[in-house]
Amino acid sequence: MRYPTTRQEAEAWFRRYGWSPERDIGAEADVLIRKAQEQAADDGVTLTPSEHARAFVRNYGGLKIFFRESPENYFVAKPELPFEGDAEEIKELSEALGEELFPLGYDTYDGAALLVDGRGRYFLLHHTGNYYLADDALQAVLNFLRGDTQDAEDFYA
Prior knowledge:
Structural class: alpha+beta
Shape: globular
Strand order of the largest sheet: 1-2-3-4-5-6-7
Oligomer: single chain
Number of strands: 7
Largest sheet: 7 strands, antiparallel
Number of helices: 5
Number of domains: 1
Distance between the termini: 38 Å
Order of helices and strands: HHHEEHEEEEHE
Radius of gyration: 14 Å
Strand content: 15-25%
């Protein structure tokens, strides 16, 4: 299976999973964001969503976007922390970048978490390291699916 290479192909790809540019889950986004904040608070970490985080959750929240049509491996667009200790790792990466990050979703294969900072830069928290994905939500999810990343250290403050 070939992943999309143009924005038009990417939009068509994501529409298959229920996404559209005008999609808005409304108040449900606030509930999802609060749950993520509560989960982080249980680990002693405060996570504050930026407007970029809120916009992403409103537009993508609740979607499942499959990797290579594999039923056991997909991206879940929910701001949850899949592993214990993720909140602390997000805080550490936030400090290194000089920008607060907020979780947006994760993959079900290895729990890699998609994050966004207050400047609209999207990052990936992964057990192999931290990575930059893009400055655009659609491109970030697409790069996540394709594994097209750049070392997050290149963006440290």
